[in-house]
Design goal:
40% helix; transcription; 19% strand; two-stranded antiparallel sheet; WH_DNA-bd_sf; transcription regulation; DNA-binding; 3 domains; 11 helices
Length: 317
């Protein structure tokens, strides 16, 4: 193992800035260093790593394979160190510059991400949030354990007992039709619905599939001649055709408002889908993470109240 005894660890900050900016001048500006001091630091890095690390190119500096290989570990280590020092001082939202990663695979992920972003910017202008709205991959629990994902807003609760699941609200499923559809009305029976064409989303893998989306409702859509990738595409199709589409109620409220759609209740008992806030228990005592959890909880419950899914927002526990 290579010893760090003789290495100036400030060089790791220079390496991170160079990798992020791909420019000696911009890296220097980020760190408050002159261009010559940054160039000198790059020379020392090259000597320590016995590699060029960054090569000049028409579009900026291109990292070498060695730089690409070592960056993730250096970046993670520096982020962990920054986090530890900040937490030792206590979390202050106004002055904090922490970065958080939030996964929102709920169909309204983009809408919720913008709400959370705006609320965070108002309360903590220096905090940086990054969002990912794609369906969570199988390695999501590992990414949360390692701190690469801080929170997930999902309709699938974590089964591992080392994770905390906080129920935010219950969503439900409804059917949407365009305004002026010749047969659609607020109440339709199964026999009436069976006469209609549906647009549907690709069915998720079994472990990512809401249990509520099964039985007669899925059977109605199984022969659909139009399949799309995401729920956000359904209102686009439905608003322009006589297709019907199944949507979460949280999304159908927006479809009714923005696309003037008819919302059709699914026959039978209401279909309920719990929406969870999920995080690893190792973050329980993290003051910054607790601030983030509280902010997300408030934003999500306000959105649920506006969508008619909650009578009133509750305080986070």
């Amino acid at each position: 193992m290579t010893s760090l005894r003789g290495m100036d660890l400030n060089l790791l900050l220079v390496f991170e800035a160079l990798y992020d900016t791909r420019s000696v001048s911009r890296a220097g500006e980020r760190l408050g260093l002159s261009q010559s001091a940054t160039s000198h630091a790059l020379g020392r890095l090259r000597e320590a790593c016995r590699d060029e690390l960054f090569l000049r190119a028409p579009t900026g500096m291109t990292p070498t394979p060695v730089a690409n290989r070592i960056f993730p570990e250096i970046h993670t280590a520096l982020d962990s160190l920054r986090h530890s020092i900040e937490e030792a001082r206590g979390f202050d939202a106004i002055s904090s510059t922490r970065r958080f990663e939030i996964a929102i695979p709920h169909p309204l992920g983009p809408e919720y991400a913008l709400r959370i972003r705006d609320a965070a910017a108002a309360a903590a202008p220096g905090v940086r949030l990054r969002f990912d709205t794609r369906t969570l991959a199988d390695d999501a629990p590992l990414l949360m354990r390692e701190g690469q994902i801080d929170l997930a807003i999902d309709w699938i609760a974590a089964e591992d007992d080392r994770f905390v699941n906080r129920r935010l609200f219950d969503d439900s499923l409804v059917i949407a039709a365009r305004k002026g559809h010749p047969r659609a009305k607020a109440r339709m029976g199964w026999s009436e619905l069976a006469q209609e064409e549906f647009v549907r989303c690709h069915r998720r893998a079994f472990e990512r599939r809401p249990k509520a989306l099964s039985g007669k409702l899925w059977d109605l859509m199984s022969e659909s001649r139009l399949t799309v990738s995401e729920y956000l595409e359904v209102p686009f199709v439905v608003s322009r055709t006589d297709y019907l589409g199944v949507l979460p109620k949280s999304m159908a409220c927006i479809a009714a408002r923005d696309f003037r759609m008819i919302v059709v209740e699914v026959p039978g008992p209401s279909i309920r889908i719990p929406i969870w806030l999920v995080w690893h228990e190792g973050r329980r005592r993290d003051a910054g993470h607790a601030w983030l959890r509280g902010l997300v909880h408030r934003v999500m419950q306000t959105a649920a109240v506006e969508a008619g899914l909650l009578a009133e927002a509750s305080s986070p526990k």
